Queue: 2 jobs
Job 1
Amino acid sequence: MTTQTAQAACKADDGQPLLSVQDLKIRIQMDNGVMQAVDGVDFEIKKGKTLGLVGESGCGKSLTSRAIIGINPKECETTGVIKYDLASEGSASDPIDLLSLDPKGKRIRSIRGNKIAMIFQEPMTAFSPMYTIGNQMVEMIRIHRTKNKKEAKKIALEMLGKVGISDQEKRFDQYPHEFSGGMRQRAMIAMALSCNPELLIADEPTTALDVTIQAQVLELMQSLQREFGMAILLVTHDLGIIAEMCDEVAVMYLGKIVEQAPVREIFYNPKHPYTKGLLKSMPRLGGEKSVRLDSIEGSVPMPIDMPPMCGFYERCTDRIEGVCNARSVPKTRISDDHSVRCFLYSDQQRGEAQ
Amino acid sequence: MLQYSIKRIVMAIPVVIFISFIVFYIIQLPPGDYVSSYSAQMTAAGEIMTQDDMDQMRANLGLDRPVYEQYAIWIKKIVFEGDFGYSFNYNKPVIDVVKQYMGLTLVVSIVTMLFQYLVAIPIGIYTAVKQYSAGDYFFSGLSFLGMATPNFLLAIILMYFSYTWFGDPLLGLFSDEYVNAAWSWDKVVDLLKHLVIPVIVIGLASTADLIRVMRGQMLDELNKPNVVTARSKGLSETKILFKYPTRAALNPIVSTFGWSLSSIFTGSTITAIVLNLPIQGPVMYKALLGQDMYLAGSWLLFMALLTVLGTLISDILLAWLDPKIRTEFRGN
């Protein structure tokens, strides 16, 4: 018994990842070819930590996050390994590969909502307009926590209170359209957290909200994270949110993670030209008003039948002809916790090694 | 809810009055009247009616008065005496003619409607869930065929098959020995047997239509984010399917319920003639041909009422089904 706890503690100290995604690939059959929407993504999330997955629209970040619990549409052909550590609940089993589970089967369903919960971008459409908020919350609690209706309602009311919704009894019986946008997202969070998940996947949780509500919702997520000790995978395109929320950041571009580092490293020591471009395009307090924000020239190509090359080549200011557009880019470790996919650094490293 | 229903019923009254006026006007529109078509029949039979005879007959039937007066008398009698006028063709009050055919008309219509919804909704769900599968193509092909095939043709084809396979074309709604017999279990069974062909023939086009509507709605709903949310909560696929997309897809089906009620009544006319069914359609057709104006008028008015009533029913049902509409008038 003691050894087991000691082991568990040791594991936690080692930073045994809660979730480990290895070489995740998602292909989608389109009319004009196969789209490689996600192309070899690796990342880890440690217990209680927050990983930010940042990138522009269509870079595959949402698909990646949804692949974890297997809720992508069946057109998505997904390969790779998604290891999830179930041992934390006491059963000393090896991490299971979530991808190997039948996406409609019982096993994955007992993990969805229970161990790994998800909140979505559009709280307006993520709830069904046909049922009350209470109905939709209780439904989930009754699958995972208790069969008892009254008890489930009690948990739901408690959660609604936790996310700062007053007059819960009345709100419980209201429909989504009777909630404001911010309220709906709070209710969404209340629902997601009602089964005490170990990992919360937040897919652009604040994109549809105005800025004041955004701040409230983020604060709420942080305080709940402290209270429940869950890990968060935060998918967003907003670097401001990343800076505020995350421990680690993975920058995604065209289905690949181009740079991954702790949050301070990303902001103070960015390596990849895309990351640099992103940071330059952020507005700054105290900056001159007349100065236009930088933008990254060009647009994202469609990842259909791409030759092996850097996806950012066309838009990159530091590109090396004959190198960047000739081979696919390997991952280069800058330091222990900072890696980048860019020839600028792999050359340097090779040079140093020689 | 009650307030909303009452409001809707009150709002329907002026609509009905307006419709009754138009109906009467339309029946008056064709040249000639019952007397002229009657005299034409007489002439064909070898008897000549003089102008005096015809004027006399017009005066008796009240057809010599101005249109608005005839209308006023007609409406007054309907409202105060429940008297819809006199059918010249049948030589009895319109209400008796309607009564005689109404029972079986209702049976055929209601069974057809049940058939439509019971067949169309499950097939609609199936074809949406299994989009582009062999089953989907099969049912989609069948439903396009169903929409395109003329009713009467299908009626004739089915009669042919039932004659070659069972030795009975199943004309009418009863076998000869039951037509005038008292109601018994055997008579009901006989009726059900005879209902199969009419129900398929009358219902096929709208069933095919409903399948398409249900399929389209389901496809929309299946791709909604709330389905993804439901999946992320760990619900089983079956539970998700019936609780979220199916429930939401039913709303438009319910809102078209109003029209299908009257379209079954009218749409069955040609079929009824071909299959020799003792229902209202052919009666109405004869009334229009013979300028039997009160029967035709009452029938048209009745159809209009059914449409208004059907719309009313679907509005109230929709208000009951859709929380958004429900809160809207709860708030008022």
Job 2
Amino acid sequence: MANTKMKSSDTFMKSSSMADKIFGAAVILLSILIFVIIVYPLWFVVIASISNSNLVNQGLVTFWPKDIRFYGYEQVFQDSRIWTGYMNTIIYVVVGTVLNMVVTMPAAYALSRRDFKQRNGIMMYFVFTMYFSGGLVPLYMTISSLHLISTKTILIIIVAVNTYNLIIARTFIANSIPEDLYEAAVLDGCSHFNYFIKVVLPLSKAVISVLVLYYAVFHWNDYFNALMFNSNSDHAPLQIVLREILLLNQAFSSGSGGVQGGYGQSSADQVKYAIIIVSTVPILCVYPFIQKYFEKGVMIGAVKG
Amino acid sequence: MAKAKKVQASGNKSFGFRAGKYLSHTWQLWVMLLPAVVYIFIFCYIPMYGVQLAFREYSFATGITGGKWVGFKYFEQYFTSNMFWPTLRNTFVLSFFSIVVGFPAPIILAMIINQLRHKKWKRVVQTTVYIPYFISVVVMVSMIQVLFMNDKGVIGNFLKQIGLVAQTTNIVGSASTFVPLYVLTGVWQSMGWNSIIYIAALSSVDTQLYDACKIDGANRWQTMWNIDFPAILPTVMILLIMNMGNVLNVGFDKAFLMQNDLNRSASQVISTYVYQVGIKSSQFSFGTAVGLFNTVVNFVFLMVTNWISKRSTGTGLL
């Protein structure tokens, strides 16, 4: 290393700046390449969903939509299964996330109290579950013995608290709420309940928004739990419906799947693109507004207690 | 609980008034913890207790704990079955390549983003690389199906045109392409998200170090290699340990959804196998045994990596 340093200080500034120019150009080229790789698949789905599907299948649609039509979207909006799935998912997201917060935040507060002597032991109780679990079958049988299989309840409560999120909240409360506030509150005769509701929660807006988003995205995208613990199609969330339509190629209720010949297949493809858009757009719409919170959440989590 | 209070009272006597206040309120902390503790107990610890099913014959009449004790019978059944090596190998191969390719990718991406001088472009790149993370597995796999569809998939065809994939390959329907497809689409989806933590670590590097480098005449490449990289090394190590602990935890969802009859020989991993035998065909004891084997191997991997890392770099998770 000493050698390279000597060398570079010996060489003229010019050659060093030449190297920097090449380096800078390489960085920009690489960033453009990455950008294209990330964006193009997304862009293609968008243009394919509004183009004539025959042209899409012939490979003629590459960068811009051609022969714009909204057939796929019309089919999607007529399909009642998608709307049932949407409604169920919204219920799971809203109720599930509220439950998550009601369970996670008080627990995180209790675990953040330095004068709470048992907190390390209880923390171990939570952390252990991150690395060891009974596995799928015992979990299934536990839920089954509680008579919760194929109920809406299980899809709401299956992940009532996520240990990783609990750690994020605990770390935030422990590090960013001044201990002086607690001392003052105690002198005023404030209880933990009051202190938590009147002081901790209002000062934890940042971490609350992070966790709400983490939990909400989890519920929105959750597929595994619905597959395992629910077989009632009335309770199926959007992701399960999507799988039936997108991957198992089930016919569309409005009948387009039953149409004979190439036309039927190609419009089925167009419906797929439209469904991908319709199911992903809600998350992507809020994304720009919540991006900074997500980044913040990753950072709080990284500090780790 | 009463006992705990007593212990504290003796320890904190000198704090007088404050200790008294604290003690009278400890029960409130327990109340606040209660829902989380109960939930974890029901959905994590009771199933852990149910793991004994792996050593028992399951009977409908007596439930999890009532069956006849059969020792390691079901483990032996798994180890000697013809699915043992394929599932173990597939799981290892998938996670090995996911780590080898997927672990450095966000580090390199963070380095690149950190080097971008144009503020607006930097912001654009950062924002777009996070987007795929929010796509659900189902949609992700559907996108893979349509974009790599045989003959019609636009990206599949592109790869064939530039000669990266043989013309005759059915990308979504063959065992040989399953691993690269699984790994690379995984990198596509999570690279940006995983880079956030490194970008943050890079942005906290002391700028004086950069100035010192400049005075020494180092160019940007040398600065990156000698300043930026050491700065994020502790973060890298911690994340590496966490990744190693999940070496056999190949995400069930994606492998399961990408699975079809044509690629099953490469896509049947332990978790999908547990689902198939344990839930689908109701071999509860056998499924539990296979799942327990998976958990134990993961745990061992985590411990070993943690130990190696502590020995060699002084950073450890536990």
